[in-house]
Design goal:
- The structure is a single chain.
- The protein is mainly alpha-helical.
- The protein is about 35% helix and about 5% strand.
- It has a two-stranded antiparallel sheet with strand order 1-2.
- It starts with a helix and ends in an 8-residue tail after the last helix.
Length: about 100
């Protein structure tokens, strides 16, 4: 792979992982909002925020974006031909080498 291709693949993996359930059962994009993390009526309803916290990945700004962050759903489909919802599924699909 060329360096640009590797960088693009890394960015794609990182963006997708913001929306996936991690090994602790939490989605980084939901940050500290406990209702979104645990409530069965909310935990699987993803919000596409305007931007994200640089250290923990929590979604910030407007939560109804259909622009660049909405493209993450398309990245998942185009990259792996299927929907994934957890870090474990990402590993199984070959999107990550190990659980991070």
């Amino acid at each position: 792979m060329t360096q640009v291709t590797e960088i693009a693949a890394d960015l794609r993996r990182r963006l997708i992982s913001l929306f996936l359930v991690d090994p602790d059962g939490r989605r980084p994009c939901f940050g500290w909002v406990e209702r979104l993390q645990t409530d069965p009526a909310w935990k699987d309803n993803l919000l596409f925020n305007e931007y994200f916290h640089g250290d923990n990945g929590a979604g910030l700004g407007a939560s109804h974006q259909t622009g660049w962050t909405g493209l993450v759903a398309d990245m998942i489909i185009r990259s792996h031909g299927r929907h994934v919802s957890t870090i474990g599924e990402m590993v199984e699909a070959g999107m990550l080498d190990t659980v991070q």
